[in-house]
Amino acid sequence: MNIYKILTEIEKTDPEVYDKLGSRREVFKHFAGFGKKLAVAAVPLAFGSMFKKAYGQTSGGLIGILNYALTLEYLEAEFYTMAVAKAPGGSAGFIPSGEPIGAITTIRDHENAHVNFLKSAITAAGGTPAAKPTFDFSAGNGSNNGPFADVFTNYQTFLAVAQAFEDTGVRAYKGQADKITDNAVLTAALQIHSVEARHAAHIRRMRGQKGWITGKDGGNMPAATQAVYNGEENTNQAGVNVATLPGSSVNIGTEAFDEPLDMNVVLAIVDPFIV
């Protein structure tokens, strides 16, 4: 790890960073002997402390947002992990072998990577990662007999729930973007956001649906998932009604722009899946 290069890049992104931390000389002097004092594995903790001092992110700010994201990633990671474990190679006719199980396995690995990254980022910023909840993927709040009781035996139900999770994740990350003031964390969140969007489009294709959302129609989705798509019918973007632009329409206007979701709405959506 080239500490000097990292600090230089931070300085390019935020020229005022040293006004928040102390002089440039003091910061470089602090890190000059860092490797002699602590193991390399502890370097992220030092940077986390530095960022916390510089940008004033509290447990209700950056840490709160990261733990919110971590809970959503726990949900997705556990969902795909359980699905793959219950249907390796398409056993019991659950997930077909070949491309379907391969795609779900890859998505599982992505979600677990997101979990591990967020836990590390929270720790590095001086916070405590939220514990992984117990999940009921039938959406029965622990009864395992909710509207998706056959989620791990019926392939189509599984894909519908997967799509709902992915579409929620895309909107959830977007909903917090303007609240993240740490540029490095914002960049990482946007990188995760784009991968979640790719997951959503891929799952949609596996269901035989188009890759985008028209109005607030999720695409042949169960009624219990409608909250995931409410608000997507918005055509007002930055004060412009995009549906009235040349060559546009309500359908095009809603398809061309994806909408964010407020944290409270997202938490209400996932609440039935958490025991």
TrEMBL record:
Name of the protein this chain belongs to: Ferritin-like domain-containing protein
Gene3D superfamilies hit by this protein: 1.20.1260.10
InterPro entries per UniProt: Ferritin-like, Ferritin-like_SF
UniProt xrefs under SUPFAM superfamilies: Ferritin-like
Protein's organism: Adhaeribacter soli
